[in-house]
Amino acid sequence: MQIVSGDITRDITGEIVYLKAYKQMVGEVTGYSTEKGTATVKLCDTGLEITVSLDDIESTGSTQPHRAFNSEVHILGTRYSICIIDEDDYRYDREADGWCDPSVKEILIFNYKQSAESVKDLIAYQKKVLRHEIVHAFLYESGLWQNAYGSKCWAENEEMIDWMAIQIPKIQRAYKEAYCDE
Ligand SMILES: [Zn+2]
Q1: 100 C-alpha to center of ligand 1: Å?
Q2: How far is the CA of 63 from the centre of ligand 1 (A)?
Q3: Residue 13 alpha carbon to ligand 1 centre in Å
Q4: Residues 109 and 86 reside in one and the same domain
Q5: Same domain, 121 and 44
Q6: Structural domain boundaries enclosing 25
Q7: Beta strand pairing call for 78-85 and 106-110
Q8: How many domains does the chain have?
Q9: Neighbours of ion ligand 1 (CB under 5 A)
Q10: What keywords appear on the UniProt entry (predicted)?
């Protein structure tokens, strides 16, 4: 979708755009003026704000999450806080997309910023991560955690967790379809 100066029929604030001349430069539109034909773009990797011509940018069609989650979830009767972790939080650099800390009943979801390498829909991606962490929490609250050593830590096996996170909604729909969900 091309943004053409003077031909903007929608509000482009918040859109993720890239610079046509430097395609690795991806940023979020924080403001624009159709009169001046310029947009202010906050670059995703540095946070630097630059002013560019509307003719020089193009929309990526990507989404940037804006922390729309419920702040809590109940796991087998135990309340967990869902914390959206931004880059200024000391836990942000953990090599994971999310984190389940059963010691304090917290699920951390890292609030990724768009970049040239990002998946387009970070909101959908965050929801996937959240489902994944919820399954970790269910396993923990079921008493399945690191004592699964005997079978190579199957309760912390990432592939198994992903399988459950992806399959459970489908299983749930199948249960409903077959009227056996309760
Ligand atoms: Zn995991």
Answers
A1: 8
A2: 24
A3: 34
A4: yes
A5: no
A6: 16-59
A7: parallel
A8: 2
A9: 161
A10: Plasmid
